[in-house]
Amino acid sequence: MIKVLVADDQAAVRAGLVLILNAAPDVQVVAEAADGEEAVALTRHLRPDVVLMDIRMPNLDGISATRELAGVADVLVLTTFDVDEYVFGALRAGAAGFLLKDVEADRLVEAVRTVAAGDGVIAPQVTRRLIGEFAGRPAAAPAVPPGLAELTPREREVFACLGEGLSNGQIARRLDMAETTTKTHVSRILAKLGLRSRVQAAILAQEVAAGGRSGTFPASGSPGGR
């Protein structure tokens, strides 16, 4: 059972989201929060698998709350506001996904499942914006975290797959390993690189590839090593 906390300052919106999520046989809403501070406190206490987080909330906004919950629970941002400040702010804060509130009910439930499984999900409109952002950047070498050189050969392969936007299941099939092993590798990559989410890892992997920084990896062992 996937445990979810719903954070939104509008009671009617929360009620609708709870109704949709609880209708799924494998999802259970364990708590509701009306602001960011309450969301952080309840998440730390209840440890849900996924926090469905609004952005504009009193006391503590959703982006700040997401930043505080890094490593505690996966956050799926759900907002009405499709603006760059929120999109990039949420992803930099460590959100595992970003959806708009006009998403269909079945798509929302599937997104919760995806995030709970350790994968990321981003609204198509936002994906196009991210692609445009990368395409418009000058081809300057990115700032590469020191931890990049600490990745094992297998972690390098997983890291490259993250940059391609592959899910854990797809990575497992490509690299011929168990999906649970893939999740372990992703967790270790995030820890070594000091990142909050696989979305951040995917963005960094794309930047490294675009900047031609593959030589950053030390030549310790064969690329296909496990």
Give me a quick take on this structure.
The protein is of the alpha/beta class and 226 residues long. It has helices spanning 11-22, 36-46, 62-68, 84-93, 105-116, 124-135, 153-163, 168-175, 179-193, 198-210; strands at 2-7, 27-33, 50-53, 74-79, 97-100, 121-122. Helix 3 (62-68) runs parallel beside helix 4, helix 7 crosses helix 9 (179-193) and helix 7 (153-163) crosses helix 10 (198-210).
| Relative strand content | 5-15%
Average predicted local confidence, pLDDT: 84
Give the proportion of residues in helices. Answer: 40-55%
Rg from C-alpha positions?
18 Å
End-to-end gap: 32 Å
How would you sum up the global shape? globular
Secondary structure category: alpha/beta
Low-pLDDT residue intervals, each spanning 5 or more residues = 213-226
Main beta-sheet strand count, sense and barrel state:
6 strands, parallel
> How would you spell out the order of helices and strands?
EHEHEHEHEHEHHHHH
The count of helical stretches stands at 10
Biggest sheet: strand arrangement: 2-1-3-4-5-6
Number of strands: 6
Oligomer: single chain
